[in-house]
Amino acid sequence: MDKIVIEGGYPLRGDIRISGAKNSAIKLMAVPLLTDKAVTLTNMPDLRDTRSMAGLLEYLGVEVDRPKPDVMTLHAPKLSRTDAPYDLVRKMRASFNVLGPLLARAGEAKVSLPGGCAIGARPVDLHLKSLEALGAKIELDQGYVHASAKGGLRGAEIVFPFVSVGATEHTMLAAVLADGTTTMLNAAREPEIVDLAECLNAMGAKITGAGRSEVTIEGVASLSGVKHSVVPDRIEAGTYALAAATAGGAVRLTHVRHDHLGSLWPLIAQAGARVSLDKDSVLIERGTGRPRPVDVDTQAYPGFPTDLQAQFMALMCLAEGVSIIRENIFENRFMHCPELIRMGADITVRGREAIVRGVPEFIAAPVMATDLRASASLINAGLAARGETHISRVYHLDRGFEHIEVKLGQCGARVTRQKDD
Ligand code: EPZ
């Protein structure tokens, strides 16, 4: 197993090109299940999660071709099977989202329940209720969802009791080919949902309102092929912006949609770093003074993203004063705290709140990555730390950050990947 070793204390200086968004790419990869025409995705990140999803699609009979590192062509003239086994789904929860498209295309599917994960229980009840509302018959048996809709899915009004990114996307994927009109109320508004709707609309779908709370999907009989560019990864961009704010220096992020991080920039500026927004780039500069404390509450988009909570906490660990970080989306997303504490941070977790009392510096220590974004916070802490930080279990990091050591290395960071003992 690999580990990442960081010799900390060097400010970051340089440019970082932001990749396509993992959380959009893996949903877009389910789109070819809905058509017998080819779907080409450009600006595709090459990640462990996109590879896992490609593995599942190949199992289902989709032809997957990667003519260039950032291009993927997916083509399913016909499907060879309609089941997604536990071993493939457990590697990545989002692969559960093949259920809706398989139902829409083949009228039946058997997909493993994804199960919980490190950051919380993460049920899929809203997904299943939506599919039932669209006319699917759902049965749960031995950890699998057996779904059928022999006469096809039909449009329905779906009111989500709370906002769910996955359920919004899944419902959209299932409803595009349904008979009649589907309305989603209290839908999630994340940029990745807009990206999915734009791809589907370019194929002939009729989706209006994506990015707003009310989304309407007028079912169509079939979808054509498409060439679609994956939206830039706002979480990768936010992570590197926070890396610069934590370690100091001046980093320009390129190929970024800074309007997708409207909740982050004012908080980074409040913490004392300078943020300059340009057309599709952002410059983050931080001098030698300590950051100022800033309280943060995670919320669904356009609020502050839960996927940047851990990285923002790493910055706040060095602030001159106390900050309160509240996690509202997942019930167990503070697993980075004990690891940051090993590096000298002073954090108390009380339920959904973390009280962070700033310390003057991080001191390097061996630490363990527990989930994808927690790993990123340890990287940012390691960049600022005195000494050599060893981060083990980096496979979490490889799920969602493309060439992280190369991108940081280009900015003067001393980051290497080594074999763990
Ligand atoms: C997506 O997860 C992202 N994953 C997450 O990123 C992200 O943190 C999250 O949205 C919130 O922004 C992908 O896009 C692959 P939800 P998702 O459905 O869709 C509860 C990362 O690090 N819920 O909006 O699973 C759920 O347990 C990952 O890249 C139900 O109770 O999130 C959570 O508490 C981590 N029943 C809340 O809703 C359901 O049926 C929001 O979850 C569905 C969700």
Structural features, described:
The chain has 421 residues and is α/β, with parallel strands linked by helices. It is 29% helix and 26% strand. The chain contains 14 helices and 24 strands. The chain has helices at residues 22-28, 48-60, 86-89, 99-106, 125-133, 165-175, 191-202, 234-247, 265-270, 309-316, 336-342, 372-384, 395-398, 404-409; strands spanning 2-7, 12-17, 39-42, 63-68, 71-75, 83-84, 108-112, 137-141, 144-148, 157-159, 181-185, 206-208, 215-218, 226-229, 249-254, 274-277, 281-286, 296-297, 322-326, 346-350, 353-357, 366-368, 388-392, 414-419. Helix 5 (125-133) packs parallel to helix 6 (165-175), helix 8 runs parallel beside helix 12 (372-384) and helix 10 packs parallel to helix 12. The longest helix has 14 residues, at 234-247. It starts with a strand and ends with a strand. The mean pLDDT is 96. The structure holds ligand EPZ. Ligand EPZ binds next to helix 1, helix 5, helix 6 and helix 12.
